[in-house]
Amino acid sequence: MSEPLIKVEDLHITYGSQLAVRRGKGVRAVRGVSFELHAGKTLGLVGESGCGKSTLIRSLFGLSPIVSGAVHAFGEDITGVPARKRRRFGGRMQMVFQDPYSALDPRMTVHEIVAEPLRITGKYVRSEVEDLLDRVGVSAEMAQRRPGEFSGGQRQRVGIARALALNPQVLVLDEPVSALDVSIQAQILNLLDDLQREFDLAYLFVSHDLSVVRHVADDVVVMNTGEFVERGTIDEVFNHPQHPYTQTLLASIPHVEIV
Ligand SMILES: Nc1ncnc2c1ncn2[C@@H]1O[C@H](COP(=O)(O)OP(=O)(O)O)[C@@H](O)[C@H]1O
Ligand SMILES: [Mg+2]
Protein backbone atom coordinates (compact mmCIF):
# COMPACT_ATOMS: atom_id res chain seq x y z
CA MET A 1 0.00 0.00 0.00
CA SER A 2 1.17 3.56 -0.70
CA GLU A 3 2.47 5.83 2.04
CA PRO A 4 -0.39 7.37 4.02
CA LEU A 5 -1.04 11.10 3.59
CA ILE A 6 -1.82 11.40 7.29
CA LYS A 7 -0.47 9.19 10.03
CA VAL A 8 -1.41 9.64 13.68
CA GLU A 9 0.37 7.53 16.28
CA ASP A 10 -0.68 6.91 19.87
CA LEU A 11 -1.97 10.44 20.28
CA HIS A 12 -2.92 11.80 23.69
CA ILE A 13 -4.59 15.22 24.02
CA THR A 14 -5.45 16.77 27.37
CA TYR A 15 -7.13 20.11 28.13
CA GLY A 16 -6.16 22.05 31.22
CA SER A 17 -3.31 24.06 32.71
CA GLN A 18 0.21 22.62 32.52
CA LEU A 19 0.02 21.88 36.21
CA ALA A 20 -3.30 20.10 35.89
CA VAL A 21 -1.99 18.08 32.95
CA ARG A 22 1.15 17.08 34.88
CA ARG A 23 -0.95 15.98 37.83
CA GLY A 24 -3.21 13.96 35.57
CA LYS A 25 -6.11 16.28 36.36
CA GLY A 26 -6.93 17.71 32.94
CA VAL A 27 -9.70 16.64 30.58
CA ARG A 28 -8.18 13.67 28.74
CA ALA A 29 -10.10 14.24 25.52
CA VAL A 30 -8.07 11.88 23.28
CA ARG A 31 -6.34 8.80 24.70
CA GLY A 32 -3.94 6.69 22.66
CA VAL A 33 -5.42 7.02 19.21
CA SER A 34 -3.72 5.88 15.97
CA PHE A 35 -4.91 5.96 12.37
CA GLU A 36 -3.80 6.45 8.77
CA LEU A 37 -5.48 8.24 5.90
CA HIS A 38 -4.69 7.23 2.31
CA ALA A 39 -5.04 9.08 -0.99
CA GLY A 40 -8.48 8.99 -2.53
CA LYS A 41 -10.04 7.21 0.47
CA THR A 42 -12.62 8.19 3.06
CA LEU A 43 -12.07 7.36 6.69
CA GLY A 44 -15.20 7.84 8.79
CA LEU A 45 -14.79 8.85 12.42
CA VAL A 46 -17.95 8.23 14.45
CA GLY A 47 -18.86 8.65 18.07
CA GLU A 48 -21.29 10.50 20.29
CA SER A 49 -21.08 14.20 21.00
CA GLY A 50 -18.22 14.98 23.39
CA CYS A 51 -16.18 11.83 22.66
CA GLY A 52 -13.24 13.83 21.30
CA LYS A 53 -13.72 13.86 17.52
CA SER A 54 -13.18 17.59 16.99
CA THR A 55 -10.28 17.63 19.44
CA LEU A 56 -8.61 14.85 17.48
CA ILE A 57 -8.98 16.41 14.03
CA ARG A 58 -8.04 19.90 15.23
CA SER A 59 -4.70 18.37 16.25
CA LEU A 60 -3.98 17.89 12.54
CA PHE A 61 -4.02 21.69 12.23
CA GLY A 62 -1.96 22.45 15.34
CA LEU A 63 -5.04 23.48 17.29
CA SER A 64 -5.19 20.89 20.09
CA PRO A 65 -2.93 20.53 23.14
CA ILE A 66 -1.02 17.33 22.33
CA VAL A 67 0.55 15.68 25.38
CA SER A 68 2.22 12.76 23.61
CA GLY A 69 2.18 10.80 20.39
CA ALA A 70 2.84 11.93 16.83
CA VAL A 71 1.09 13.49 13.85
CA HIS A 72 2.64 13.03 10.42
CA ALA A 73 1.29 14.73 7.31
CA PHE A 74 2.64 14.27 3.78
CA GLY A 75 5.69 12.48 5.16
CA GLU A 76 6.59 15.19 7.67
CA ASP A 77 6.37 15.14 11.45
CA ILE A 78 4.10 18.08 12.29
CA THR A 79 3.33 17.14 15.89
CA GLY A 80 4.56 20.32 17.53
CA VAL A 81 4.00 22.75 14.66
CA PRO A 82 1.52 25.47 15.72
CA ALA A 83 -1.31 26.64 13.45
CA ARG A 84 0.40 29.91 12.47
CA LYS A 85 3.38 28.03 11.04
CA ARG A 86 1.31 25.80 8.78
CA ARG A 87 1.48 28.04 5.69
CA ARG A 88 4.32 26.07 4.24
CA PHE A 89 2.06 23.08 3.75
CA GLY A 90 0.43 25.15 1.04
CA GLY A 91 -3.11 24.20 1.83
CA ARG A 92 -2.68 20.50 1.11
CA MET A 93 -5.02 19.74 4.01
CA GLN A 94 -8.17 21.80 4.50
CA MET A 95 -11.09 21.79 6.90
CA VAL A 96 -14.84 21.90 6.21
CA PHE A 97 -16.96 22.86 9.20
CA GLN A 98 -20.43 21.89 10.39
CA ASP A 99 -21.75 25.40 10.26
CA PRO A 100 -20.10 27.16 7.39
CA TYR A 101 -21.87 30.35 8.37
CA SER A 102 -19.60 30.84 11.35
CA ALA A 103 -16.62 30.31 9.05
CA LEU A 104 -17.81 32.64 6.28
CA ASP A 105 -17.32 36.39 6.65
CA PRO A 106 -20.84 37.90 6.34
CA ARG A 107 -19.52 41.13 4.80
CA MET A 108 -17.81 39.44 1.86
CA THR A 109 -19.48 38.21 -1.30
CA VAL A 110 -19.35 34.49 -1.90
CA HIS A 111 -16.89 35.04 -4.74
CA GLU A 112 -14.59 36.96 -2.40
CA ILE A 113 -14.89 34.26 0.26
CA VAL A 114 -13.75 31.53 -2.11
CA ALA A 115 -11.09 33.81 -3.62
CA GLU A 116 -9.57 34.74 -0.26
CA PRO A 117 -7.19 31.78 0.22
CA LEU A 118 -5.96 32.31 -3.35
CA ARG A 119 -5.49 36.04 -2.82
CA ILE A 120 -3.51 35.44 0.38
CA THR A 121 -1.17 33.10 -1.45
CA GLY A 122 -0.92 35.33 -4.55
CA LYS A 123 -2.65 32.80 -6.81
CA TYR A 124 -5.98 34.50 -7.46
CA VAL A 125 -7.42 33.94 -10.93
CA ARG A 126 -10.98 35.14 -11.38
CA SER A 127 -12.04 32.42 -13.82
CA GLU A 128 -10.72 29.70 -11.49
CA VAL A 129 -12.93 30.90 -8.66
CA GLU A 130 -15.88 31.09 -11.07
CA ASP A 131 -15.22 27.54 -12.25
CA LEU A 132 -14.95 26.29 -8.68
CA LEU A 133 -18.23 27.90 -7.64
CA ASP A 134 -19.90 26.54 -10.76
CA ARG A 135 -18.51 23.10 -9.95
CA VAL A 136 -20.14 23.07 -6.49
CA GLY A 137 -23.43 24.36 -7.88
CA VAL A 138 -23.31 28.08 -7.07
CA SER A 139 -24.35 30.23 -10.04
CA ALA A 140 -22.40 33.31 -11.19
CA GLU A 141 -25.32 35.48 -10.11
CA MET A 142 -25.38 33.92 -6.62
CA ALA A 143 -21.62 34.36 -6.30
CA GLN A 144 -22.06 38.13 -6.11
CA ARG A 145 -24.30 37.84 -3.05
CA ARG A 146 -23.36 37.55 0.61
CA PRO A 147 -23.67 34.30 2.60
CA GLY A 148 -26.52 35.71 4.72
CA GLU A 149 -28.81 35.28 1.71
CA PHE A 150 -27.88 31.61 1.34
CA SER A 151 -29.58 28.49 2.70
CA GLY A 152 -27.62 26.05 4.86
CA GLY A 153 -26.96 23.74 1.93
CA GLN A 154 -25.78 26.58 -0.30
CA ARG A 155 -23.49 27.85 2.43
CA GLN A 156 -21.96 24.40 2.75
CA ARG A 157 -21.34 24.41 -1.01
CA VAL A 158 -19.45 27.66 -0.53
CA GLY A 159 -17.51 26.19 2.41
CA ILE A 160 -16.50 23.25 0.24
CA ALA A 161 -15.47 25.51 -2.67
CA ARG A 162 -13.33 27.58 -0.33
CA ALA A 163 -11.71 24.45 1.09
CA LEU A 164 -10.91 23.28 -2.45
CA ALA A 165 -9.47 26.60 -3.64
CA LEU A 166 -5.85 25.71 -2.89
CA ASN A 167 -6.12 22.28 -4.49
CA PRO A 168 -5.79 20.16 -1.34
CA GLN A 169 -5.19 16.42 -1.19
CA VAL A 170 -7.02 16.01 2.10
CA LEU A 171 -10.33 17.41 3.32
CA VAL A 172 -11.10 17.09 7.00
CA LEU A 173 -14.87 17.38 7.35
CA ASP A 174 -16.22 18.00 10.85
CA GLU A 175 -19.93 17.09 10.86
CA PRO A 176 -20.34 18.68 7.40
CA VAL A 177 -24.00 17.76 6.95
CA SER A 178 -25.19 17.58 10.57
CA ALA A 179 -26.88 20.99 10.46
CA LEU A 180 -28.79 20.24 7.23
CA ASP A 181 -32.16 18.67 6.42
CA VAL A 182 -31.92 15.06 5.31
CA SER A 183 -32.75 15.81 1.64
CA ILE A 184 -30.08 18.50 1.54
CA GLN A 185 -27.63 16.18 3.30
CA ALA A 186 -27.96 13.74 0.41
CA GLN A 187 -27.18 16.48 -2.14
CA ILE A 188 -24.05 17.55 -0.30
CA LEU A 189 -22.90 13.96 0.19
CA ASN A 190 -23.34 13.31 -3.52
CA LEU A 191 -21.37 16.43 -4.35
CA LEU A 192 -18.56 15.34 -2.01
CA ASP A 193 -18.55 11.93 -3.63
CA ASP A 194 -18.22 13.43 -7.13
CA LEU A 195 -15.48 15.83 -6.04
CA GLN A 196 -13.54 13.04 -4.40
CA ARG A 197 -13.38 11.07 -7.62
CA GLU A 198 -12.68 14.10 -9.76
CA PHE A 199 -9.80 15.39 -7.63
CA ASP A 200 -8.64 12.13 -5.99
CA LEU A 201 -9.28 13.62 -2.55
CA ALA A 202 -8.84 11.86 0.76
CA TYR A 203 -11.57 12.58 3.30
CA LEU A 204 -11.44 12.33 7.05
CA PHE A 205 -15.17 12.46 7.62
CA VAL A 206 -16.38 13.11 11.15
CA SER A 207 -19.97 12.49 12.16
CA HIS A 208 -22.03 11.41 15.10
CA ASP A 209 -24.49 9.98 12.55
CA LEU A 210 -23.72 6.39 11.61
CA SER A 211 -26.05 6.33 8.62
CA VAL A 212 -24.18 9.27 7.08
CA VAL A 213 -20.79 7.62 7.63
CA ARG A 214 -22.08 4.40 6.15
CA HIS A 215 -22.92 6.22 2.92
CA VAL A 216 -19.59 7.96 2.48
CA ALA A 217 -16.77 6.02 4.13
CA ASP A 218 -14.54 3.17 2.99
CA ASP A 219 -13.24 2.49 6.49
CA VAL A 220 -14.55 3.59 9.83
CA VAL A 221 -13.23 4.09 13.35
CA VAL A 222 -15.60 4.22 16.32
CA MET A 223 -14.63 6.55 19.12
CA ASN A 224 -15.88 6.46 22.69
CA THR A 225 -14.68 8.75 25.51
CA GLY A 226 -11.40 9.60 23.80
CA GLU A 227 -10.49 6.12 22.58
CA PHE A 228 -11.01 4.09 19.42
CA VAL A 229 -13.01 1.05 20.40
CA GLU A 230 -13.46 -0.44 16.94
CA ARG A 231 -12.20 -0.06 13.39
CA GLY A 232 -12.68 -1.79 10.09
CA THR A 233 -14.26 -1.54 6.68
CA ILE A 234 -17.82 -0.23 6.53
CA ASP A 235 -19.02 -3.75 5.89
CA GLU A 236 -17.15 -5.20 8.88
CA VAL A 237 -18.21 -2.57 11.36
CA PHE A 238 -21.84 -2.25 10.26
CA ASN A 239 -22.55 -5.92 9.63
CA HIS A 240 -20.33 -7.53 12.26
CA PRO A 241 -19.76 -5.03 15.06
CA GLN A 242 -17.44 -6.55 17.65
CA HIS A 243 -17.41 -4.01 20.45
CA PRO A 244 -20.47 -3.65 22.72
CA TYR A 245 -20.32 0.12 22.30
CA THR A 246 -20.57 -0.16 18.52
CA GLN A 247 -23.43 -2.62 18.88
CA THR A 248 -25.27 -0.18 21.14
CA LEU A 249 -24.67 2.70 18.75
CA LEU A 250 -26.01 0.69 15.82
CA ALA A 251 -29.02 -0.54 17.77
CA SER A 252 -29.93 2.99 18.86
CA ILE A 253 -30.28 4.21 15.28
CA PRO A 254 -33.52 2.80 13.90
CA HIS A 255 -33.11 4.11 10.35
CA VAL A 256 -29.90 2.16 9.78
CA GLU A 257 -31.05 -1.04 8.15
CA ILE A 258 -28.66 -3.87 8.98
CA VAL A 259 -28.35 -6.07 5.89
N1 LIG B 1 -11.14 24.05 24.51
C1 LIG B 1 -11.50 23.11 25.39
N2 LIG B 1 -11.15 23.21 26.70
C2 LIG B 1 -11.49 22.27 27.59
N3 LIG B 1 -12.18 21.15 27.29
C3 LIG B 1 -12.56 20.98 26.01
C4 LIG B 1 -12.25 21.95 24.99
N4 LIG B 1 -12.76 21.52 23.81
C5 LIG B 1 -13.36 20.34 24.08
N5 LIG B 1 -13.25 20.01 25.40
C6 LIG B 1 -13.75 18.78 26.04
O1 LIG B 1 -13.12 17.69 25.40
C7 LIG B 1 -14.03 16.61 25.21
C8 LIG B 1 -14.14 16.29 23.74
O2 LIG B 1 -14.78 17.38 23.05
P1 LIG B 1 -14.88 17.45 21.45
O3 LIG B 1 -13.57 17.12 20.87
O4 LIG B 1 -15.49 18.73 21.10
O5 LIG B 1 -15.91 16.23 21.16
P2 LIG B 1 -16.82 15.94 19.87
O6 LIG B 1 -16.27 16.71 18.72
O7 LIG B 1 -16.73 14.46 19.68
O8 LIG B 1 -18.22 16.35 20.23
C9 LIG B 1 -15.33 17.07 25.85
O9 LIG B 1 -15.35 16.59 27.17
C10 LIG B 1 -15.24 18.56 25.84
O10 LIG B 1 -15.99 19.14 26.87
MG1 LIG C 1 -17.25 18.05 17.43
Which ligands appear in the coordinates? adenosine-5'-diphosphate, magnesium ion
Distance between the termini: 30 Å
Strand content: 15-25%
- Rg, nearest Å: 19 Å
What's the structural domain tally?
Answer: 1
Strands in their spatial order, largest beta sheet = 6-7-8-3-9-10
Order of helices and strands: EHEEHEEEHHHHEHEHEEHH
Would you give the CATH topology?
A: Rossmann fold
Helix content: 25-40%
Structure description:
With 259 residues, the chain is an alpha/beta fold. It has one domain: P-loop containing nucleotide triphosphate hydrolases (Rossmann fold, 3-Layer(aba) Sandwich), CATH 3.40.50.300. Helices cover 34% and strands 25% of the residues. The chain has 10 helices and 10 strands. The chain has helices spanning 18-22, 53-58, 100-103, 110-120, 126-135, 152-164, 182-199, 210-216, 234-239, 244-251, and strands at 6-15, 27-37, 42-46, 66-73, 76-77, 93-96, 170-174, 202-207, 219-224, 227-233. The strands form 2 sheets. It has a 6-stranded mixed β-sheet with strand order 6-7-8-3-9-10. It has a 4-stranded antiparallel β-sheet with strand order 2-1-4-5. Helix 7 links the parallel strand 7 and strand 8 (202-207). Helix 4 (110-120) packs parallel to helix 6 (152-164) and helix 6 (152-164) runs parallel beside helix 7. The radius of gyration is 19 Å and the shape is globular. The mean pLDDT is 93.
